[in-house]
Write a structure and sequence with these properties.
Oligomer: single chain
Radius of gyration: 22 Å
Strand order of the largest sheet: 1-2
Distance between the termini: 50 Å
Order of helices and strands: HHEEH
Largest sheet: 2 strands, antiparallel
Length: about 120
């Protein structure tokens, strides 16, 4: 009976990480689609002013890269765990870690030297 507990918690932890992974991939796919839609909208807007394709494509690509960078960062922050030191402002963002790893890092942060 005592040996079944750690095995079950390991299975639960893997299931939690799988749910995190699926949620993170869905958020990144949504960020990709939003970025692509905004880039197409910008390209169509430029095309309506008869801007040459040699200029429209790089602008639309830059818009896509900028928006995807922003929305991808927001999606990553939405699925991250943040640990902060209250004394010095040290901040660490974790994604896709187990509870044990997160707890170990929290303890490490609580006893790090507070230097500038």
């Amino acid at each position: 009976m005592g040996g079944a507990g750690p095995a079950r918690s390991g299975v639960r932890e893997r299931e939690r990480l799988l749910r995190y992974s699926i949620r993170h991939h869905l958020l990144m796919a949504a960020a990709f689609l939003v970025s692509a839609a905004i880039a197409v909208w910008a390209g169509v807007g430029l095309d309506s002013y008869a801007v040459p394709a040699s200029l429209t494509f790089p602008v639309a690509t830059a818009v896509f890269a900028s928006v995807f960078g922003l929305t991808g960062d927001l999606a990553g922050r939405a699925s991250a765990v943040t640990h902060r030191c209250p004394e010095c402002g040290l901040t660490i963002h974790l994604t896709g870690t187990t509870r044990e790893e997160s707890q170990r890092l929290r303890e490490t942060i609580s006893r790090h030297p507070h230097r500038l």
